[in-house]
Amino acid sequence: MNPMHIIDYRIHGDDMQFVEIELDPNEGVLAEAGALMFMDDGIAMETIFGDGSAQNRGLLGTLLGAGSRLLVGESLFMTVYLNQSATKRRIAFAAPYPGKIMPVNLREMGGELIAQKDAFLCAAKGVSIGIAFQKRLGAGLFGGEGFIMERLQGDGLAFLHACGALYERELSPGETLRVDTGCLVALQPAVDYDIEFVGGIKTALFGGEGLFFARLRGPGKVWLQSLPFTRLARRVVAAAPQTGRAGREEGSVLGGLGRLIDGDNR
Predict the structure, then answer these.
(1) What single DSSP character describes residue 182?
(2) What average pLDDT does range 251-266 have in this prediction?
(3) What is 8-165's CATH number, 3.60.160.10, 3.40.47.10, 3.20.20.10, 3.30.300.30?
(4) What is the dihedral of CA 115, 119, 122, 126, to 10 degrees?
C-alpha cells in the first residue's frame, strides 16, 4: 500500500458544493483537470503521466496506468498540487454539476472502492485511480456506465461527486437491490454487480425506466445518486428553446401567444 498524505478538509455549499482542503507543508492532492476552484500562494502544480500512484513501477507500469485512464474516458495526465511553503495552505475543488460531494476514507473501505467514471473529483496524493473491468459481459454491455468503471486504491481520502441527492445503503449478505443503472455512484468490491432485464416487452418499451436494472447483491456498501447526469442533460435539451419553421420557441405549443400569456414578450 502506498503512503498517503493525510489531509484536512471542509465541504461548503448545499446543492452546488466544493471541497476546501488544508495542506500542511509538503502535503499534496491530485485531481482531474478542470476541477480546481482556487488555491493559496505557495502551492505548486505538477502534471503527472499515469494513474496518480506513487509506486515506482517502471516505464511499463506507468504506461499501463496511463492507458487505463484513457480507457475510462479520462485524460492521460493528472495534476498534483503540492504545498511547497513552510505554513499551511488551502486549495478547493468544485463539483461540475449540482449534487453532493462524498468524502471516502479508503482505509475504512479496505483500501479499494469501485466508482462510475466521471465520479472522481480529487484525492490525497498517493491514491491511484485505475480501471475495474466488470466480470460479466452483460454488465459491461448494458450497465449504463459501460464495461469499465474506475478503481480507487490506497489508504487515504478520496472525494467523489454525485448528481442530485446522495444515498448510502449497506447491504447485508445476500440482500439484493435493483437500481436504475445511471443512479449507481460507487460500491465496495465485495458487492456483486450485474444487469437484469426489467421484465416483459410492454414494460421494457413503455415503462419509461429503460430496458435494464443494475442488480446489487451484498455484502457491502453502495452509494446512489437521485439524478443521473445523463437524465438531467436530456431534460435540459428537451426544454431548450427550439425554433422551427412554425416559429415555435421554448417548447410551447402556443408559440408567441404562450409568451404573451406568461408575461414574457421579449
Answers:
(1) G
(2) 47
(3) 3.60.160.10
(4) 20
